[in-house]
Write a structure and sequence with these properties.
By secondary structure, the protein is an alpha/beta fold. The chain is 46% helix and 15% strand.
């Protein structure tokens, strides 16, 4: 693709995008991040780039696609800053990567609704990327936005060997809740298991080592047989007496 790309925000998602789009031969021409140390490290790895720790109007003007990869609480601030530039935005794609926010955040009339997109990778990012970690490959992206932007999203996601699900604009928070449940709740459940195991004298640091085989097998079963058919244990057997004893033990 010969379109020039500007990435604003090189945190966990933005850095992954920078490396993986570059690997797919996209032109990453401009980078902005408040963290100057991180900005320099990533730009040195992906050089040559125009970089800045503040949003630059000349970067916007020279770009075709602008990715906004900042935390949700900063998205409106970034959009407000951009909207105050005296530039023509009518043919520029603006994409943000928030799972919860929709394209409604682009509330300023200066943007072309057909070129606006929410492009959210259904993936977990626990660190800033300093190389192509392939985190964006073979996953799903939740998208919502204008027609032209959706076509662009299809091209990008296809290049990443990934797939798309459509998210209604007024259902973004429900969609994001499902994503959070699938990832964060798993960690929470394992932490609860760790606490329970610790109460009988088992080293809590060994929790994952102990439960990894059953987790791996459960995921394998789900992949092969589906969610309902993968349930085992007292719930599947309708063993009310055992479940009752579990609850009594936990209450104590």
């Amino acid at each position: 693709m010969d379109k020039k790309i500007y990435i604003i925000g090189l945190g966990r998602v933005g850095s992954a995008l920078a490396f993986e789009l570059s690997e797919k031969k996209y032109q990453i021409n401009f980078l902005t991040d408040r963290n100057t140390e991180r900005l320099k490290i990533i730009s040195d790895l992906l050089h040559p780039f125009n970089i800045s720790d503040t949003i630059q109007p000349e970067y916007i003007e020279a770009s075709d696609i602008i990715f906004i990869c900042v935390q949700d609480r900063y998205i409106r601030e970034v959009i407000k800053t951009i909207s105050e530039f005296t530039l023509d935005f009518s043919k520029k794609y603006f994409l943000h990567t928030s799972g919860a926010e929709s394209t409604e955040v682009f509330s300023v009339n200066r943007f072309n609704i057909d070129y606006l997109l929410s492009l959210h990778p259904i993936q977990t990012f626990n660190n800033v990327s300093l190389k192509d970690n392939h985190l964006l490959e073979n996953i799903y992206f939740g998208i919502e936005g204008g027609e032209k932007a959706r076509i662009l999203a299809g091209e990008i996601v296809n290049k990443l060997n990934s797939k798309i699900i459509d998210v209604p604009k007024d259902k973004k928070y429900l969609y994001h809740s499902a994503c959070v449940i699938s990832s964060n709740f798993l960690i929470t459940l394992l932490n609860i298991s760790s606490e329970v195991l610790g109460s009988i004298g088992v080293d809590k640091n060994k929790t994952f080592e102990i439960f990894k085989p059953i987790i791996d097998k459960t995921l394998e079963n789900i992949s092969r047989d589906g969610l309902v058919n993968s349930l085992t244990g007292p719930f599947e057997r309708n063993d009310v007496e055992t479940i009752s004893r579990h609850l009594n033990s936990l209450n104590k």
